[in-house]
Amino acid sequence: MAKLLVTGMSGTGKSSALAVLASHGHRTVDADSDTWSVWAPDADGGNDWVWQEDAMRTLLDEHRDGHLFVAGCAANQRTFYPRFDHVVLLSAPGEVLLNRVALRTTNPYGKSPEEQALMLRYLRDVEPLLRKTCTIEIDATAPLAEIVQRLEEIAEGRVPNPNG
């Protein structure tokens, strides 16, 4: 019964992977939603996307059956790293991310030039921080079925090549 956080930049395929994992019978939570996250003031006078900590604590404390896959990227996610068995980073180059968000129909984020510039800034500034703190990184340019298989192998404790 593993608990995995699947994190990464917009367009890496977190939501797509969750959908397939759910179809395989796994419990999945998309934390990049208003149900689990809110905009909150940050120290610089702006706003950060953060997990609702009480809700996330309850989810992680009360989960008992099967594997749990939580996907998202939030300013305070590191607070919860000790509660996950693995923190899995999905990563892909900027041009791949921009192409994916331009084509997706399930999420409007990333369509405007301002949002695209922000995505590239996050890729430059935030992804390296995620890379330093993740337990495993998966190349998200791989086919979705392969990514899902890797996530299931990680949850089952079968990680043949953690960084390959």
Task: Describe this protein's structure.
Helix 1 packs across helix 6 (144-155). The relative contact order is 0.23. The protein has helices at residues 14-23, 53-62, 94-103, 113-125, 127-133, 144-155; strands at 3-8, 27-30, 37-41, 47-51, 68-71, 86-91, 136-139. It is built from six helices and seven strands. A five-stranded parallel beta sheet has the order 2-5-1-6-7, sandwiched between helices. A two-stranded antiparallel sheet has the order 3-4. A hairpin with a 5-residue loop joins strand 3 (37-41) and strand 4. The protein is of the alpha/beta class and 164 residues long. The two termini are 24 Å apart.
Could you list some keywords that capture this structure?
single chain; 164 residues; Rossmann fold; five-stranded parallel β-sheet; 7 strands; globular
Topology of this protein?
Layout: E1 3-8, H1 14-23, E2 27-30, E3 37-41, E4 47-51, H2 53-62, E5 68-71, E6 86-91, H3 94-103, H4 113-125, H5 127-133, E7 136-139, H6 144-155
Parallel strand pairs: 1-5, 1-6, 2-5, 6-7
Antiparallel strand pairs: 3-4
Helix pairs in contact: 1-6
CATH class of one domain: Alpha Beta
Reported CATH architecture of one domain: 3-Layer(aba) Sandwich
Arrangement of strands in the largest sheet: 2-5-1-6-7
Q: Please give the radius of gyration in angstroms.
A: 15 Å
Globally, the shape reads globular
The run of helices and strands is: EHEEEHEEHHHEH
How many beta-strand segments?
A: 7
CATH superfamily of one domain: P-loop containing nucleotide triphosphate hydrolases
- Helix count equals 6
Strand fraction band? 15-25%
Structural class: alpha/beta
Please report the distance between the alpha carbons of the first and last residues: 24 Å
Low-confidence stretches: none
**In CATH terms, what is the fold-level topology of one domain?**
Rossmann fold
Largest beta-sheet details:
5 strands, parallel
